[in-house]
Design goal:
Chain A has about 150 residues and is an all-alpha fold. Chain A contains five helices and no strands. The radius of gyration of chain A is 27 Å and the shape is elongated. Chain B is of the alpha+beta class and about 650 residues long. In chain B, strands 2, 3, 4, 5, 6 and 7 form a six-stranded antiparallel β-sheet that branches. In chain B, strands 1-10-9-8 form a four-stranded antiparallel β-sheet. Classes of the chains: A mainly alpha (about 150), B alpha+beta (about 650), C alpha/beta (about 180).
Amino acid sequence: MNRFLRRLATALIALMLAATCVVHAIDPLPFRDRAEEVRFQNLTRQLRCLVCQNQDLADSDADLARDLRKEVFDMMRAGKSDADIKHFLVARYNDFVLYDPPLKPGTWLLWFAPFVFVVIGAIAILRILRRRTRAAVAASVHAPSHTEDDW
Amino acid sequence: MLPELGQFALILALLLALAQCVLPLLGAWRGNPALIATARPIATGQFVFVTLAFGVLSCAFLTQDFSVAYVAQNSNLALPWYYRFSAVWGAHEGSLLLWVLILNVWTFALANFSRHLPDAFIARVLGVLGFVSLGFLAFTLFTSNPFARHLPALADGVDLNPILQDPGLIMHPPMLYMGYVGFSVAFAFAIAALLGGELDVAWIRWARPWTNVAWAFLTLGITLGSWWAYYVLGWGGWWFWDPVENASFMPWLVGTALIHSQAVTEKRGSFRAWTLLLSIFAFSLSLLGTFLVRSGVLTSVHAFASDPKRGLFILAFLTIVVGGSLTIYALRAPKVAGGKPFQMLSRETLLLINNLLFACAAAMVLLGTLYPLIGDALGVGRISVGPPYFGFMFPLLMLPVVLLIPFGPFFRWAAGDWRATLRALTPALVLALLCALAAWLLVGALPLRGVAGVGACLWVGTGIALYALKRWREAPRGRRYTPEMLGMICAHFGVAIFLAGVLVTEATSVESDLRMAPGETKNIAGIDFTFKGVAPAQGPNFRAEQGVIEVSRDGRLIATLNPQKRQYSGNAPVQTKADIRPGVFRDIYVALGESLDDKGAWAVRIYVKPFVRWIWFGGLMMMLGGFVAAADRRFRILPTRGEAPAPSAAPSALATGALAP
Amino acid sequence: MNRLLPLLGFFALVGLLGFGMWWNAHHEANEVPSPLIGKPAPEFALPLLYAPSQTLTKKDLLGKPYLINVFGSWCATCQYEHPILMAEAKKLGVPLIGMAWKDPPAESQRWLQQFGNPYDTIMSDADGRAGIEFGVYGAPETFLIDAQGVIRYKRIGMLTPETIASELNPQLAKLGAGGR
């Protein structure tokens, strides 16, 4: 009985989510000017909707998303900075709400690993190249003459 | 009756796949010509039965046989016939059957268009492909049977998801799979070469056209997907770095490195390890993508319904295939770096850098896509990784590539003359800087991305044009442009167009959500939009509310757009259908929101997106380049014994050698 | 060794994916854990559902632990949680306070009339503002708040007899409260 309940609950939630989470919200807000609108768009594009978890806050049509967009708008009007607004949401909803992962020890791997790969790869390549260059010098390789077809 | 025939056909195909996997590999190992000779006929037989099964499923859809559960879940009586056909691959079971079908299409093509290749080698290649097919057929039959019946048959089915009722869906998955699955051929070639202990690199020449065609199809599939998302989903975006999008992008990145690496290995004998590994990785990433989409491990809008049993099966299969191939690599890969030596500044080095950067980009996308999982595993909480991360990292990693692309064709093999190249490229540099400056000065407040986009486009585009010109002037008539070179020129030009599209769109797109009353006009980005109200409309299987918006500039009417909100039958949610006025230099895009009051005011979203079509033009040109390059007759000539480069790095044998064209 | 690296890297990947599958089987995929656990509950001042002129604030509730259950008449899952609350609420030994979230008060009242009222007190958060402060993102959700006003536990999704036994009751016991 209980496992059934749990599965039922999950199915119901999934159904509700599926029903709403395809539509993109069109939510006119009374912006003062273009700059404010652009700032709002940029900010809400970096935030994730908790209900429709595959959409950002700018696009999600969920009720909560509308409420949170209004929250963000009000905070912007109140003079809060982008960082303040993000901090407000993270304090209540978890780092999950940021599409831009914050730089903290838990995400060092994420932010630095690609560069580490490139550096390691570059060092490995340099070593390979030096070995090859020595071989090339030994073979006195020169650029093929101009008339030779290079393909 | 017919669905059972389809299932039976699949079972027969499974048995044939088993035979295809075991017999030729056994034959090649033992040197038994009879067993080796079974490879091609068995592959053809498997193809026939899989096609039959797919045909039966399509028939079930077209005749609307709702006794088949899969048909009942994905189509209903009101569905137009052309979507009934594409509904075959609208959900998990059918798309899996499509996967298997396309794998067999490639296998069949390989079995029949490779008469000039050694039988033992082809036997191994087909054997490997047989193993892959075996796994997927087993997966289909045991966990995802599309022919399962639902008795008693329902009178009507559930409608196909309205988002999927679109021409884009008809094309996008098949093209994507042609690419995705097509990398299995390069994979099979690599494994066959490793198994056979082929030290020489002749097999690379045979593998190249197949790999180029697969890559071109994948490019097409991704381009179609992006374009389709743009016009169907009503959000004006064209790429979201969604896990499933990334699942197709990673093989593409590795595939791009692969086609370049294959060129080096074929012509110079170098980078054998890179080419082997990239061949394995490209297909591994395809398999990984299949796993990610169907296992439910990551949340994604694209993902098929997840089921842990299916996830485990694919994970096990993935482990066997990739783990097995990497083990074979560890055991059999060439121990000594081979090929002709080259200097620090040479085309080889540039392509090595290319390999590194594309491989790192693929690793970065993988890291970002899987990081939520890693975050859970490390206990650092639920981390989301989205466009801000990928959109920052990817351009950064690709920046060196963009800067170095024009150098590639100019640098010669073994030793490039950087001074001469810089001289040759100076016009490109100057033009790029001038146009970037002009763009910055002429367009008000153009963000750096836009300026960079203009500059990058002209740098790459002019660079490749200058090379084409050089070739025209210097090469003897009749041998100016081989198809391979033409393909390269076309594809690199496509890169230039793509860069302009992406960067300029991102820099200059304007989006606005507006409240519009009937008769009201608003001006966005210098264009006037007049809202004329909303009226009911009717489609073949939906009812809609259709808005009328007149678009004009300086008083002259440019277009009348009709965005809709569609209500499909059943409990489907209302679907927003945007209307777009496409243009070479600018798209105008309007989507309808909801009614805001009872006096006829509606919420409307308007986009003005300059240069957005260039993104897909660029993709198409890259695809075209891939196809053209594959058509080079040179790849179909079986090399004679003397031509293949020797495996050892002995300089004496190589100093004077140059591959005959 | 060089040639073994790809294989080893791949095994690490498979390990991660296997972990992912295990994690999925044991956790709700879409659940977002709350960062407010162990932090003071937000200040709130909400009208009572049945007596809108009166307000319930956080200060009123300090001094002993209590549960806040977020629900709404629009919430389908709440209907399944409801009988469990009706049966178990009294046994928990702490007050069960309902928060009607994003729900017109008339609708909440109608729903409770239809299904019964398991709550000791009910407050109405019609515009959802208090819910945002609590980090509510769906219904039903249940918060356990201790005598000092610190959030100790949050249940996302419906309470079931199993979760009450395995998760909620131990938390209650830790606070020295808790039913039989």
